[in-house]
Amino acid sequence: MSKLLKDSNHMCFACSPKNPIGLKLVFEHEGDICRASFIAGPEHQGWNGVMHGGLLTTILDEVMAQWLWSRELSAMTAEMTTRFVNPVPIGAKLTIESRLVANKRRLFLMEADALLPDGSVAAKATAKFMPVKV
Ligand SMILES: CCCCCCCCCCCCCC(=O)SCCNC(=O)CCNC(=O)[C@H](O)C(C)(C)COP(=O)(O)OP(=O)(O)OC[C@H]1O[C@@H](n2cnc3c(N)ncnc32)[C@H](O)[C@@H]1OP(=O)(O)O
Q1: If you average pLDDT over residues 41-67, what whole number do you get?
Q2: Which residues form the Thioesterase domain (predicted)?
């Protein structure tokens, strides 16, 4: 087992339950999907009443990374694009889902969607992840 896996002081901003200012995301896996949910509070806004896009990108990134991590694939984000489709209101429950699109040589091509409570798309991301030794 890797040192990182055993590290109980892991302080990932997005997923560690120990990070006092972290997002404390929790993940579930269903078939080929990794899923998390998040409700932005007033401290997470950019424009008044709207979740900050950088934070939304962080969550999309994390849910893609966790898809790989849950399969014991340690990989870092090498490139990522986010399309912000609709604003995310503060207090709305977001569902974020990721999946693998392709594995080309050393690159894992991933995609993720952030969905609003009515099922409409708030944001879509694509990313390339590259394996790293941990
Ligand atoms: C206890 C609980 C623990 C929980 C843990 C939770 C874990 C999850 C946490 C999740 C946290 C959230 C996630 C985060 O926040 S991850 C943090 C953000 N990401 C990083 O910090 C990554 C920084 N970058 C690097 O470290 C390196 O550049 C990497 C590792 C990515 C590659 O450096 P490496 O030295 O390995 O490779 P290379 O540069 O020799 O290139 C090799 C080949 O690849 C090609 N290439 C490179 N880039 C790209 C690209 N973008 N598109 C297409 N191709 C690309 C390149 O041309 C070359 O091709 P060729 O010339 O061979 O043909």
Answers
A1: 98
A2: 48-120
